[in-house]
Amino acid sequence: MAALQIRNLKKSFGGLPAINDVSLEVAPGERRLIIGPNGAGKTTLFNLLTGDLPVDGGSIALFGEEVTRLATHRRVHRGLARTYQIITLFQKDTLERNIALSLLGLSRTRWNSFGRIPEQFREEAAAVLSRVGLQALASRPVSEVAYGERRRLEIAMALAQNPKVLLLDEPLAGLSREERGGVKSLIAGIRREVTVVMIEHDMDTALDMAERITVLHYGRVIVEGSRAEVVADPRTREVYLGH
Question: How much is the pTM?
Fold first, then answer.
């Protein structure tokens, strides 16, 4: 059974197709990379998967369960988590509090977010921050940490939800060479029980991060396969190099 199964997915804006009959399957535990130039439809695809955008046609299934019409929070409760191309964090709150707020979203516990963090969330937040190497910064406001650390925090917030399928939208965007190395190591260390699907714009930067690669262009899948197969395919070179 596929961890993520997409069938004939469609989405248009103003009559122009942004996602045009996309189908793909991602196996449990797989590391899948979705690449393509700007405007290929990569982030739109993620927004359809999470329910941030409604589909115009097609279907989405998580581990065999149809989720196409479910609200975003219901997909989260079924094991889907994501990060965003533009970092979405609470800048004035501490790293620990950002993680705790993420945990609160999955809990039925009532908590005044302006008060003291409940001990159960504090312990879980500490464990998650430790996993991504940020435990020493737990009490620092987000606004006072480096950009690369914010990227790692956003991934930590997604991991705090104990996802079965994790969507990473350009996790290396805007990072220095050293920061990219740190985030790559973090992603490589995610346990195999979690299926990871990543979006990247820069093919050269991301090719070593996945087992299978899907190339999108103008909302369509034009190439799919192993790293070697995708690199060797003339359609990939045409998209990225123009010849």
Answer: 0.91
